[in-house]
Specification:
By secondary structure, the protein is of the alpha/beta class. It contains twelve helices and 20 strands. The structure holds adenosine-5'-diphosphate, aspartic acid and magnesium ion (MG).
Length: about 400
């Protein structure tokens, strides 16, 4: 008998028929004698709609109230999924994140899981139930509802698999696994049999929304091996696990495009110690994650000044602008330019550690497409560039063809 954690994403529970489909799959595992904990997302489109509703009330809604609102999406699905199992004669109980014992910090809309006490889950499993847990949510020690950031049901599943010491963790979605690029944008993308945590983490952080990046980080930390597979068929998916020796033979594992970033440029920032610290400390205090940063001192005439550009999540752009505006009196920079018409295109592969010439080939490919590079950042296993959003998909296809075609 195995203990299996299965997560079903929004499309996989997108309508009553799909929910019945999920129930049938769960029932099959149950019939083999396995214990099953099911994590579900909100039905597809629901979370986006809730956000839209809130923004119609006010542009920058209170984040505690956002969490109260967003958590309703997953709460709907757990009840419907439990009913679908009941309809098949399978015992099932639904639990909210809080009821499942998921405790988080108080950073609303992107809370971090602090610990999980799965006492209730164990009890219900012992009583012969399938336990259905609402993904994406938890509660603070003093009882406020929190959510775990977009795509956070992946994190719920991985964290539960770790806390329950599950034998198997399966992430069911609407594609057959992790591909060399988003198969919806790049028709020639290929499904990967396996991928290392580090590569999956980079791809996920760089826009491949097939897995939430924080969930991959968590899986790596706690050694949770998981499989990404389709809820619509029985094809084997992609195994995500620690890097093995032969993985380095492949130079580029995948290409990703993040359309969810925005760029802020501070023009003519006084060039003196402490200025960057002041800016990024303030952004950090506002819980804004800054991704790429580029700064270069101007060597022209006049007082030493620099342009400073950085990127943030599109969702944080308004908040970031507000923080920067608040520093104007103190720092005396020349101006601020903000745009969300950018895309971040990246190539990822552990094989980059031992191969050279990769950046040159990527930039040449972009040049041939007439794509201008606005920012560049690299790590041992990735190269990312910021480009015009309008050319994002064209550039992605060209780069995929150059390295993986
Ligand atoms: P779920 O609702 O199941 O969590 P998501 O929509 O969050 O599913 O993630 C699945 C989607 O991720 C796919 O439909 C696909 O378009 C997209 N995607 C982006 N990059 C990749 C990739 N490299 N491999 C597979 N899917 C990807
Ligand atoms: N419903 C949440 C979202 O759309 C969480 C998830 O689906 O994983 O981001
Ligand atoms: Mg998802």
């Amino acid at each position: 008998m195995s203990l299996i954690v299965q997560k079903y994403g929004g499309t996989s529970v997108g309508n009553p028929e799909r929910i019945r489909n999920v129930a049938a799959r769960v029932a099959k595992y149950r019939a083999q004698g396995d214990q099953v904990v099911v994590v579900v997302s909100a039905m597809s489109g629901v979370t986006d709609n809730l956000i839209k509703l809130a923004k119609e009330i006010m542009p920058l809604p209170n984040e505690r109230e956002m969490d109260v609102l967003l958590a309703t999406g997953e709460q709907t699905t757990i009840a419907l999924a439990a009913m679908a199992l009941h309809a098949l004669g399978v015992k099932a109980v639904s639990l909210t994140g809080a009821q499942a014992g998921i405790k988080t910090d108080g950073v609303h809309t992107k809370a971090k899981i602090q610990n999980i006490t799965p006492k209730k889950i164990h009890q219900h499993l012992k009583d012969g139930n399938v336990v259905i847990v609402a993904g994406f949510q938890g509660e603070t020690p003093d009882g406020h509802i929190t959510t775990l950031g977009r795509g956070g049901s992946d994190l719920t599943a991985i964290a539960l698999a770790a806390a329950l010491k599950a034998n198997l963790c399966q992430i069911y979605t609407d594609v057959d696994g992790v591909y060399t690029a988003d198969p919806r944008i790049v028709p020639g993308a290929r499904k990967l049999e396996e991928i290392s945590y580090d590569e999956m983490l980079e791809l996920a952080s760089l826009g491949a929304k097939v897995m939430q990046s924080r969930s991959v980080e968590f899986a790596k930390k706690f050694g949770v091996i998981f499989e990404v597979r389709s809820s619509l068929n029985d094809n084997p998916g992609t195994i995500v696990k620690e890097e093995t020796k032969n993985m380095e033979d492949v130079v580029i594992r995948g290409v990703s495009l993040d359309k969810n970033q925005a760029k802020v440029t501070l023009v003519a920032v006084p060039d003196k110690p402490g200025v960057a610290a002041r800016i990024f400390k303030s952004l950090g205090d506002a819980a804004i994650n800054v991704d790429m940063i580029v700064q270069n001192i101007s060597h022209g005439s006049g007082a030493p000044a620099t342009d400073l550009s950085f990127t943030v999540d599109k969702a944080d752009l308004l908040k970031a602008q507000k923080v920067i505006d608040g520093l104007k009196q103190e720092i005396h920079f020349g101006g601020i330019i903000a745009t969300d018409k950018i895309g971040k295109l990246s190539i990822v592969g552990v094989g980059m550690k031992s191969h050279s010439g990769i950046a040159g080939k990527m930039f040449e490919t972009l040049a041939n497409e007439g794509v201008n590079i606005e920012m560049i950042s690299t790590s041992e296993i990735k190269i990312s560039v910021i480009i015009d959003l309008a050319k994002g998909e064209q550039a992605m296809k060209a780069v995929h063809a150059a390295f993986l075609g």
